[in-house]
Specification:
Radius of gyration: 27 Å
Shape: globular
Helix content: under 10%
Distance between the termini: 64 Å
Low-confidence stretches: 1-18
Number of strands: 61
Structural class: mainly beta
Strand content: 35-45%
Length: 805
């Protein structure tokens, strides 16, 4: 049976590979997955039957799509299974008793034989599986993204509808608030379901729109019980992909978020407990729910330490997490990839990603221009477990209260502080509010013993607190008196140990002042071409030619007529997106708002030999990088906070001309003519005339610590009381400020900060700047905010220079 099956598979899409398939930064380009739809995400990745099994998904395809079920051999041979029917699957569960893997609409036995449930029998977008409440040995639950719930006989695959998918007419409906279902799990007598989205125009523009739900069903009732009206994704327990060993007593965990912070809920002994964690990234914040994919909590072969993904942070998550022991959650690193699922396979953690989408969805902005759509594609990312601790330095921002009226005696939910080296808290209330008192308590060891460590008299509208010396797992606040329009915002970070030296993998990329290099425009092609088009230019602007990058990472002159002209026309870099004046980098967003960023190498004050470089581009599905004056930034979509939630990733001071994603790789142009020959990340063309760089998007953390100099004013005439443009503050170490002016008498200049990223400005301190002198201020190491701005109390000509080292 098995040999016959493999002969069949070779006809249906077995891709032969060399004994040692080519790879860069843990990405094997020959393993890339493609479909014909607007997105090709990796929904599930599971080791089973001596193989790695993968399903991909297209958006909004409850009846099937061109996506496939893939079987990957230990030798990394990619086999397309003929049983594939596509759709939008992200479900996976191993059923112990029947020894089957359920993945997408497929059931795979321990010999690798595949059976498939047609969408005509089980309509919907399957998002999760769970063990059955009353017949766990004989049945399994399937949930769809639109609240459909089915039970499936594991032997016959007979399907019974329990709640009808809301896309279908008639039948019993769950009628839950929110939509965009994600997680499902059984524990303590209930089936728990999560969705993370909301319909309506508000959800497409405002991240604080009420959205999502966590709900439970007892297996008998006609309706579901709403647990919490917030966005939730993963629902799981210590049993992970198998289901809990002791379903009556084992805890159940679920992760989600709101506009304030990440939410973690725990069901233990029939009672729900809520905790909050900071956000490493805001790119996941859309209230519509489309930006999250499927965050997971999974076993990766590290004993009781699980791995969780949520809002751009890799979290260490203890398998022992319970009401009696909440210790052990800590950030491991921040990341840029969009991850749908992951697992341990042999000596690697394998991340299934969502890399390149044909459809931009709601992630459009003028700064990106109009680029011809690629074919949707994604890939796997193979990472050594220890490498997870050495990607992006972990930062976290999150609130317990956000512009809320807090009654006297209210105690907040616990907020995670463990695992961060620098910790600060900003407290504010409405101007003119009464003198108030807030008590800070800490749970030192996660055993639930709360100790008061500080009482805060909030006598002014705001107060900033350095909590670096506070040790413990969790922190909570109690309002001793009523608070009006209160905010309690944390900024946390791990020490950024990066220096300013580029990692050797970037050797050969052109320096900012280099005059002899290869630039050019790059684009992952559409129309099932499956190559990357590269229109190469010399530094003097002359055409070198047009090339195609192939799955084996060979770069060859194209033989296709018209591709060169098409690439130059439909991958054109918009002009004037970013500018710089004497003070700093300037960007104007789609709403006409001005923002300022630090400058890097002075070479970028002048136009490059090829004119403007690429300033913004989508590099993973619904994820943009912003690039200005030698620094890469993570730029959330406008529906997830937009430019106000910008975060610097790395400063490189290289003459990078263009960048994009292809087959899961990150591609950059701007290679020096003198690039070393021994760097495998520099891919040279077969004719020796062109070159580009290829690696993983998360390689760019290794370009160097974010740094720069600038400010909102440089010998700038300013009017009394008029605030400056916002100047980026987040994500930098060792911040200092120098103030000077040309007035003949002292001038008071007020520094303000936006601690929330929502445009709520709070005073930090005022500086008396004497005539003819420069006042310098070094910020405390823990001080952090999203943006700074300055206000002078009289008309003057002023300079304000921030130095970030």
């Amino acid at each position: 049976m098995r040999s016959h099956l493999l002969l069949t598979l070779s006809f249906f899409g077995c891709l032969p590979v060399a004994a040692e398939p080519v790879q860069l930064s843990g990405i094997h380009p020959h393993l890339a997955f493609f479909n014909d739809e607007g997105e090709c995400g990796t929904g599930a990745v599971v080791p089973w039957a001596d193989r790695l099994w993968v399903v991909t998904y297209a958006p909004h395809m409850p009846k099937g799509s061109s996506d496939k079920l893939y079987e990957i051999t230990p030798g990394l041979e990619l086999i397309v299974r003929p049983e594939s029917i596509g759709g939008t699957p992200a479900n996976r569960m191993i059923h112990r008793e029947s020894r089957q893997l359920f993945i997408g609409p497929h059931a795979i036995d321990e010999k690798g034989n595949v059976r498939t449930i047609p969408y005509a029998e089980m309509f919907g977008r399957p998002t999760a599986n769970a063990r059955h409440l009353t017949d766990p040995a004989g049945k399994i639950y399937y949930a769809t993204m639109e609240e459909g719930l089915y039970e499936v006989d594991v032997r016959t695959l007979q399907v019974t509808e329990l709640f009808r998918d809301e896309h279908l007419d008639g039948g019993r409906k769950a009628d839950l608030p929110g939509y965009h279902g994600k997680g499902l799990y059984t524990g303590q007598g209930v089936l728990v379901y999560a969705n993370n989205g909301e319909r309506g125009e508000a959800a497409k523009t405002k991240p604080d729109t009420p959205s999502g739900v966590l709900a439970s069903w007892d297996g008998m009732s006609e309706t579901w019980e709403i647990i919490r009206r917030n966005q939730f994704t993963e629902v799981t327990g210590p049993g992970g992909i198998y289901g809990n060993d002791n379903p009556d007593t084992d805890p159940l965990w679920t992760m989600g978020w709101d506009h304030k912070s990440v939410l973690l809920m725990l069901l233990d002994k029939g009672k729900w407990h809520t905790f909050r964690l900071p956000k490493g990234s805001h790119s996941y914040d859309g209230a519509h729910g489309w930006n999250t994919e499927w965050p997971r909590i999974r076993e990766i072969g590290e004993g009781d330490r699980l791995l969780a993904t949520m809002h751009g942070t890799f979290w260490a998550f203890p398998n022992t997490f319970s009401a009696e022991n909440t210790a052990g959650i800590a950030p491991r690193s921040n990341y840029l990839k969009v991850i749908g699922d992951f697992c341990r396979w042999n000596d690697r953690v394998v991340f299934g990603c969502d890399d390149t989408a044909k459809n931009e969805f709601l992630n459009k902005r003028k700064a990106k221009g109009r680029i011809a759509a690629p074919q949707s594609q994604s890939n796997l990312w193979f990472v050594k477990p220890g490498q997870i601790d050495h990607l992006g330095p972990a930062i976290g921002r999150g609130a317990l209260w956000m512009d809320e009226d807090i009654a006297a005696g209210t105690t907040s939910e616990p907020f995670l502080i463990a695992g961060y080296d620098r910790k600060s808290l900003h407290l504010s209330q409405a101007p003119g509010g009464k003198e108030s008192r807030v008590t800070i308590e800490v749970d030192a060891d996660g055993k639930g013993s709360w100790e008061k460590i500080r009482g805060i008299e909030l006598t002014s509208p705001s107060k900033w607190l350095d909590l670096t010396d506070v040790k413990g797992e969790w922190l909570r606040l109690t309002a001793s008196t009523a608070l009006s329009n209160a905010t309690a915002m944390f900024h946390l970070s791990r020490n950024d140990t990066r220096g300013t030296t580029l990692d050797p993998i970037f050797a050969g990329l052109a320096a900012g002042d280099e005059k002899a290099f290869t630039g050019g425009l790059v684009r992952a092609r559409g129309d099932n071409k499956r190559t990357l088009a590269f229109a190469a230019f010399a530094a003097d602007g002359s055409d070198i030619g047009c090339y195609e990058l192939h799955a084996d990472l060979t770069l060859k002159p194209t033989t296709e007529p018209g591709l060169h002209a098409h690439t130059k026309t439909h991958t054109r870099i918009p002009v004037g997106v970013v500018s710089a004046d004497a003070a700093s980098v300037v960007f104007i967003d789609d709403d006409g708002k001005r923002w300022r960023l630090p400058k890097g190498d002075p070479a970028f004050d002048r136009p490059g030999p090829l004119g403007d470089s690429r300033a913004a581009r989508e590099v993973a599905t619904e994820r943009d990088l912003f690039h200005a004056h030698g620094t890469f930034y993570e730029l959330p979509a406008n529906n997830a906070g937009g430019f106000a939630k910008l975060r610097p990733v790395a400063t490189h001071n290289l003459r990078i001309h263009d960048f994009c994603s292809y087959r899961g790789l990150f591609i950059m142009t701007g290679v020096s003519n003198n690039a070393p020959r021994d760097n495998p990340h520099i891919i040279r063309s077969s004719d020796g005339k062109a070159a580009l760089w290829a690696g993983a998007i998360d390689d760019i953390w290794a370009m160097g610590k974010p740094r720069g100099t600038g400010g909102p004013w440089f010998e700038t005439p300013v009017k009394a009381g008029k605030p400056s443009d916002p100047y980026l503050a987040t994500g930098y170490d060792h911040k200092s400020l120098e103030l000077s002016h040309n007035s003949k008498s002292a001038v008071t200049i007020r520094l303000e900060a936006d601690f929330t990223g929502n445009g709520s400005w709070q005073p930090v301190r005022s500086f008396e700047v004497p005539a003819g002198e420069t006042v310098k201020h070094d910020f405390p190491a823990a001080f952090a905010a999203y943006w700074f701005r300055l206000v002078a109390e009289e008309d003057t000509s002023t300079s304000a220079v921030f130095t970030y080292r």
